[in-house]
Amino acid sequence: xxxxxxxxxxxxxxxxxxxxxxxxxxxxxxxxxxxxxxxxxxxxxxxxxxxxxxxxxxxxxxxxxxxxxxxxxxxxxxxxxxxxxxxxxxxxxxxxxxxxxxxxxxxxxxxxxxxxxxxxxxxxxxxxxxxxxxxxxxxxxxxxxxxxxxxxxxxxxxxxxxxxxxxxxxxxxxxxxxxxxxxxxxxxxxxxxxxxxxxxxxxxxxxxxxxxxxxxxxxxxxxxxxxxxxxxxxxxxxxxxxxxxxxxxxxxxxxxxxxxxxxxxxxxxxxxxxxxxxxxxxxxxxxxxxxxxxxxxxxxxxxxxxxxxxxxxxxxxxxxxxxxxxxxxxxxxxxxxxxxxxxxxxx
Length: 347
Hints:
alpha+beta, CATH 3.30.1330.10, 12 strands, 6-stranded mixed beta sheet, about 350 residues, 11 helices
């Protein structure tokens, strides 16, 4: 059996089961220093309680030829996006960034000035959203890659006095399903870049969404402070991530296709495909969350990021569905990005 035979998500399950069998994962137990694991593999970040408070930890890797093409994203843009994809995970947990380490796998012929420009992009993201780079590693590699590992901390407390977090497993039947921003723009930008079509004024929004996304840290803070419990970021496509979200919470969901927020630019550029891009396109880095109407309204009124209700959490027996205006199910088709079962992306 090969990795390509089972795909990314089944592989993660298999490796997690291996750690469970070896008693490496012990959530809920405190060690001698008072650290207690709260969330392990399967959420946007791992989380633990410590004498210093609640912390979360995440990591992400960008590989040349699989996740980016330098001539398209540019050195500065690569640094920015390498940080933002991790910042988005921190936002999805209702936390703020603290410290990061950066590991580089470098080919000999890479220009030093380019790497300096990349680190300026990293620094700009830190200045804009918080956190500091405090270390890392550099290794020689036949393939250029950038790995960021990032810690975050929650500033809020829940009803038990512990650090309050947003998690994938806290959605309840009856909750409203909502998202930030517009969906599909990044997928549209990726499609344009892949075709080699120059970006112009009519597609600049799509380019920005793909190459320079914005982490929704302020919305995450609003949600956790308002009593929200359930969220994740949209990195593998709305429907693919919603399925993971519902599986973690043991629920189902109904999404109204006509409520999914999309930009005019996406519709104009892809009049036949915009809904598919919005439902299954990856790398939006918007937040998907389930909450009461009160919490959703708080998010709407407190931040300047658009928040749209797209559906409702239902019993798990109903599954995860998209329906049209008449209430009929829509065949979504491919429902998310899998690094091993999909054709590799070059962005």
